[in-house]
């Protein structure tokens, strides 16, 4: 994909590209996994840019959009600067927007990439807290690297050039600094 001078343009161009599904599998609980090529079939007029983080030559964005079929989606978009003032889509993770089943404890639903073999880690996602207020989330990698972010608009984003070893431990804190929940992220 060609580089653009503004990260939002890169994200919209990639995600709004029509998706070509080559395989689909239905799992218990209504989860559907698809593989194929192209973009994510987003309606280019439906984008909401929720949150962003940046470090030298890299940016991470949390976006919400609707597909052309009307499905509401969230996506974490990793971008890298091309060295000539433009940006290109590096990777991402996402899924359908919707509530968790009743009874779930606070949980950070994360997706990402760049761990293990290279030092270009990114992760982010929605923090599901029910009636509770999660103020910040800490991510602790297996190799001891610790990243932290505040919950803004329901999202957290993590971006670093440090090498991250999986699995990670996710800790969710309230505004007083008390751990509300902990879970693994693999």
If you had to describe this structure to a student in words, what would you say it looks like?
- By secondary structure, this protein is mainly beta.
- It is 5% helix and 52% strand.
- The protein has one helix and 13 strands.
- It has one helix spanning 7-15, and strands at residues 19-26, 32-38, 48-55, 58-66, 72-81, 87-96, 107-113, 121-128, 136-141, 146-150, 155-160, 168-173, 179-185.
- The strands form four sheets. A four-stranded antiparallel beta sheet has the order 3-4-5-6.
- The longest helix has 9 residues, at 7-15.
Write the layout of secondary structure elements.
Elements: H1 7-15, E1 19-26, E2 32-38, E3 48-55, E4 58-66, E5 72-81, E6 87-96, E7 107-113, E8 121-128, E9 136-141, E10 146-150, E11 155-160, E12 168-173, E13 179-185
Antiparallel strand pairs: 1-2, 3-4, 4-5, 5-6, 7-8, 8-11, 9-10, 9-12, 12-13
């Amino acid at each position: 994909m060609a580089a653009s001078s503004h990260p939002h343009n890169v994200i919209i161009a990639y995600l709004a590209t029509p998706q070509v599904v080559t395989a689909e599998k239905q799992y218990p609980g209504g989860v559907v996994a698809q593989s194929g090529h192209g973009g994510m079939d987003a309606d280019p007029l439906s984008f909401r840019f929720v949150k962003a983080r940046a470090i030298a030559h890299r940016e991470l964005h949390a976006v919400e959009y609707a597909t052309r079929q009307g499905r509401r989606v969230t996506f974490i978009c990793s971008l890298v600067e091309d060295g000539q003032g433009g940006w290109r889509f590096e990777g991402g993770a996402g899924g359908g927007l919707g509530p968790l089943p009743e009874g779930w404890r606070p949980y950070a639903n994360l997706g990402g990439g760049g761990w293990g073999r290279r030092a270009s880690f990114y992760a982010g996602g929605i923090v599901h807290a029910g009636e509770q207020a999660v103020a910040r989330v800490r991510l602790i990698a297996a190799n001891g690297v610790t990243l932290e972010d505040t919950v803004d608009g329901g999202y957290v984003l993590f971006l670093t050039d440090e090498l991250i070893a999986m699995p990670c431990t996710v800790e969710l804190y309230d505004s007083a600094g008390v751990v509300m929940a902990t879970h693994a992220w693999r």
